[in-house]
Amino acid sequence: MRRILAWLDDRVDLVGIRRVLLDRKMPSELTWWHTLGSATLTVFTVQVVTGIVLAMSYSASPDHAYDSILYLQQHVLSGALVRGLHHWGASAMVVLVMAHMIRVFTMGSYKYPREVNWLLGVGLFFIVMGFGFTGYLLPWDQKAYWATQVGTNIAGTTPVVGETLVKLLRGGTQLGAATLARFYALHVLLLPVLLVSVVLVHLTLVVRQGIAPRAHVLEKNAPARTTDPAYPAYYEETYAASKGEGVPFWPNIIAKDLIVATGVILVLLLLAHFKGAGLEPPADPTDTSYVPRPEWYFLPFYQLLKLVPGSMEAAVAAGLPALMVLVLLMLPFFDKRSKRMLAHRPVARLALFGVLGASAFLIGASVRDEPPAVPPEVGHPLNSVQRAGRALFKAQQCGSCHAVAGVSTPDKNSDVPDAPDLTDIGLHHSASWMHSFLEDPSRFHTDSKMPAFGPPTLSHEEIEEISQYLATLRGPHGDAKEPQFVDTFPEPKKLQEHP
Amino acid sequence: MVPEGRGPQPEGVVDVSEKPNDTNEDGAAGTPVGRRTFLRRVSGVGAAISAAMVGIPVLRAFASPTLVHKTSDTWIKVADDIALLDVGVPVRVNFVQTLQDAWVETRALNGVWLYTDDGEKFKAYNGHCTHLGCSYVYDKDRKDFFCPCHHGQFDVKTGAVLAGPPPRPLDELPVEIRDSAVYVQYADYRLGVPEKIEA
Q1: What is the DSSP string of A224-250?
Q2: Domain check: are A288 and A339 in the same one?
Q3: pTM of the shown model
Q4: A410 and A362: one domain?
Q5: Residues A389, A311: one domain?
Q6: pLDDT tens digit string along A467-493?
Q7: Among B6, B21, B18, residue whose Cα is nearest residue A22
Q8: Chain A within 8 Å of B7 (Cβ-Cβ)?
């Protein structure tokens, strides 16, 4: 072993690598906030590993995407858990990237000489948002479909290039098969390559430039501006002194990083286990009642568009993200004062708290606006028969008389105002009772206003599909409440004599 | 600005192991476990736990095909009640079979012929002629199975070839009676060959 190591050292300079990567001294007094970058990298690793396994049970076509996710959840061991990790990992990525950016901003670490690494970081932030946007569509459920519909429509309001942009995003004019394949390719091919490349440069710069010393250390006796010819010399001196008092990266800093990483993964695992990734009914482009909502980290932007008057919408929809990119990219170039502590940077303080406060307010408003979430079906996804029934329920316009929470709201001018609410019909009647009733309601109530759906209107198979679907309607109770059937059947009709 | 790790370093040392010059104040002699050692252990434990928390579910999902033994029930109910089946006259039963290939569901229309001598013991034959797969029929006059495509004839009781080109007897399928309903384990076999090989 020793000989192999010695040989390797001779050829690739292990000691040198070790000195550069592990033994490098870090400035003194690094905080726990300094672990956010490595925590992001850890979660990205989780995303890569879980993503590979997810891709093994995924089909990027509208015909099969939803079923492949169901298959993963139900038939692959730990499939639901792995998907849960990936789902919550995505949110964690966004949270950690933002927290890391806020840390760097607050401590003024983006200033001389780390401007380039700030730019790369901003790039990484947008790549992560790209991952979120493209990954969201892949399950091809209602939420995925409609959120992407809205997202791509927002891009479409961009002046001049809007239409081209939509076609580029969707792979055509409509959101469909081409969009799904396109998003999948971006999500698993382009974005990972892009992210890994930029991360490598980002980390190389971290190793070469080292971590910025604490803000108060770098402020003492500093020239007022980083553009001052004396500043580089001042910086080198202070930095060397700070490192002199510092600790080696391994094991002091790595231990801290790993404690945080373990904690983050534990949280992800708990969320994945107890909350899972969720799956709504399959995407239904004909559903006009669905209220689309984007993932939480797009909510501030989404809510802002609601508050903006129509005439301004295009300007805000296209202008705000563009402005955001511009401000983030230009930040190290217009902020050249050498002050790094937030206490000494009133404008930065105001901007930070302004953006954070506004985002929190908008997310809050958006959550309050959220329609009450009454799960229209039992907690678990529908099988193919029930899904067929659901489609028939819509096609037959059942919802124009009957209310079902979250699925249909009857026409107020309907001439049958007393049509029963079907929100929890599955708790009161069995599928077989509903089958007989649907065939000929007048057998049950002679004055029933409901039309008979028996053949030839619908076939027995179709009636059975609707009945199976209706049996899943259990209001807000889901599987929690046992159904209490009150199925009374009418006297059997006299069999008609066949001629 | 001087890049990291380019400063003056002692040359010619081929020691890849931990450097002994631990300058940390906590690592002073006397403490049973020095600070560096403690931090190294924390790192090791943290890395191991993290790897396990993600690795175990991921590897389990990856190895899922080798761990899950699918006990798929290929038995198909072809008749609700044996009492309703004629004795001595075969009946053809068609059914839709749902085939599941991972998340892709396909449906196939298949059929079997059921035959009983005594109302207790049943025989089931795959509905395809063993010659080229045509659907054969029951010839009421001759009381045998007759394939209209190339005039093959089979015995109703045994499935044996009576005449024509079929290379082997009709493919008999396993039959089970559960609560007086008839179940058949459906399978298709390779056509046009003398051996009965599952297709």
Answers
A1: SBTTSTTHHHHHHHHHHHHHHT-EEII
A2: yes
A3: 0.73
A4: no
A5: no
A6: 888 888 877 666 667 777 877 777 665
A7: B18
A8: no
